[in-house]
Amino acid sequence: MTNDILYSFRRCPYAIRVRWALLICEIKVEIREIDLKNKPLDFMNRSITKTVPILIKKNNEVIEESLEIILWALSETKKEHLYLPKNKKEEIFEIIDKNDNEFKYHLDRFKYSTRYENNNEEFHFKKATKFINILNELLVEKKYFFGDNPTIADWSIWPFIRQFKIACESQKRTNYFEDPIKDWLDYFENNKKFKSLMYKYNLWEPNSKKNYFPLC
């Protein structure tokens, strides 16, 4: 194995945040884009959770959780002090946890309301916007959540806020963002790295040609 391997799904917010971390940390991996409705046997055999992303290191160790992959990427490039400052660690992990375990719950039930029995779409929209308001407060007089430089909190959360924005637009909702969070999200969506981040790879098959992320 010449490169670490990342099993990914292009639109998954957990996979997006991992790919963003790999871009920033300048780590090149073999990428295997999979169909979540038809998961390849190799992926199923290697993954306990059966969800993307997973990273297979050169020594065949498997990292299953997206945040763990991000932390691994940081350790590989010795950039923890830039993106995970010691004096902000507790706050950073706290806001990521709130995103992953509270906001994501309501986001799913707002965006995919028909998938859940007896679901109250408006209730979950309002609960999701409460988290957005917390983020807006963090962005008062700051460019990013914890200062003038992004941290892994920004990396980890923006794909989910983007998903919320897409859901609002599809439902023709207006005024769902205030300026702080809108400007913050614009930084990522309009970033020159975004095209590489969201490049559409062919689905991986065992005998297919290897694909790499990023492309160059």
What features would you describe in this structure?
With 216 residues, the protein is an alpha+beta fold. It has two domains: 5-80 and 195-213, Glutaredoxin (3-Layer(aba) Sandwich); 82-189, Glutathione S-transferase Yfyf (Class Pi), Chain A, domain 2 (Up-down Bundle). It has helices spanning 13-24, 41-46, 66-77, 80-83, 89-111, 121-138, 152-170, 179-189, 194-197; strands spanning 5-8, 29-33, 54-56, 62-63, 211-213. Strands 4-3-1-2-5 form a five-stranded mixed sheet. Helix 1 packs across helix 7 (152-170), helix 5 packs antiparallel against helix 6 and helix 5 (89-111) runs parallel beside helix 7 (152-170). The longest helix has 23 residues, at 89-111. The two termini are 19 Å apart. The relative contact order is 0.16.
Keywords:
216 residues, alpha+beta, Glutaredoxin, Glutathione S-transferase Yfyf (Class Pi), Chain A, domain 2, 2 domains, five-stranded mixed sheet
| Secondary-structure class | alpha+beta
Which residues sit in consecutive blocks of at least 5 with pLDDT less than 50? none
Secondary structure: number of strands: 5
Domain module count: 2
**Major sheet, described briefly?**
5 strands, mixed
Give Rg in angstroms.
Answer: 18 Å
Indicate the CATH topology of the largest domain: Glutathione S-transferase Yfyf (Class Pi), Chain A, domain 2
Shape annotation: globular
Topology as a string of helices (H) and strands (E): EHEHEEHHHHHHHE
The N- and C-terminal alpha carbons lie at a distance of 19 Å
The CATH class of the largest domain? Mainly Alpha
Please tell me the CATH architecture of the largest domain by its name: Up-down Bundle
- The tally of helices reads 9
